[in-house]
Specification:
Helix content: 25-40%
Radius of gyration: 20 Å
Largest sheet: 9 strands, mixed
Number of strands: 15
Number of domains: 2
CATH topology of the largest domain: Dihydrodipicolinate Reductase, domain 2
Shape: globular
Low-confidence stretches: none
Strand order of the largest sheet: 14-13-12-11-7-10-9-8-15
Order of helices and strands: EHEEHEHEHEHEHHHEEEEEEEHHE
Bound molecules: NADP nicotinamide-adenine-dinucleotide phosphate
Strand content: 25-35%
CATH architecture of the largest domain: 2-Layer Sandwich
CATH superfamily of the largest domain: Dihydrodipicolinate Reductase, domain 2
Mean pLDDT: 97
Structural class: alpha/beta
Length: about 300
Amino acid sequence: MAAIRLAIVGVGKIVRDQHLPAIAGNPDFSLFATASRHGTVDGVPAYTSIEAMLEAVPEIEAVSLCMPPQYRYDAARVALDRGCHVFLEKPPGATLSEVQDLTRLATAKRRSLFASWHSRYAPAVEAARAFLSSGDVHSVRINWKEDVRHWHPNQEWIWAAGGLGVFDPGINALSIMTHILPRPAFLTAAELTFPENRDAPIAATLSFRDHAGMPVEAEFDWRQTGKQSWDIIAATSKGEMVLSEGGAKLAIDGKPVFSAPEQEYPELYRRFAAIIKAGQSDVDLAPLTHVADAFMLGKRKFTEAFHD
Ligand code: NAP
């Protein structure tokens, strides 16, 4: 099959860090154009809006939407209306209902819609899922703590309503949790901490349980300096499982059992090509649903103003 003619919308940090190398390494895609108000990619025709790009280059078959989530829906509608397959960066949108609307449109247009969750493709995630399905899980603890000044300097959108604040990385933990737990969990309590000058939280604590009462406690914090942690720890009948470094490493009772080179974005593009070939969509709203529940059920606390 000829390579799928792909365009990227919203050329920023994640595009340069991950999308461009993953696309260059995947013969199923050829990068045909970009649409971004400022960003461009050397040697690739550049437009400043998705409408102008699809008008000028009607051969485009698929688009990757890599702008902040608050601006994804309108671009996705334009692309689907034009008959393109759509890759949504995470989180797939600013609300659940807009992503459901896109899913309906993709079905009507017979195009593939991909709500990508890159952390699910971290190397040790499948091994963790297999381990948890092999015994009884007694409890789970998630520690997702990083320094926002290091990872998200001057990203104003992330602090705006719909930018999710600490849930921007935290939703990665939730995307792994919802993939590896043998039974679905649901939120029972939450506390969200907002800087007094921002519309999105800097920290959150979440309590979940599943129908059998198995507890999951999660702590997301953006004020972590020094050692960063992206860990999921499970107490099970077969020992303590530690999935660390955002899903890169797995240890059981302190013994490393799995580690492999990171391949998240190459895997995402393999999956996108596969669903296009199969005529399917892949839209799992479970991680975004937990975030919405946290905003719905969570108590709010305010803390000192945050300045970059
Ligand atoms: P970013 O660099 O701040 O933004 C990406 C691009 O989106 C910007 O360069 C900008 O391009 C465009 N953009 C920014 N504000 C916009 C607005 N108000 N309206 C329309 N376009 C706007 O962000 P990023 O870090 O790449 O993240 C983008 C998405 O990828 C987010 O959903 C994030 O959660 C996800 N993601 C990020 C990372 C990461 O490590 N950074 C990892 C995984 C996933 P123009 O100015 O040229 O239009």
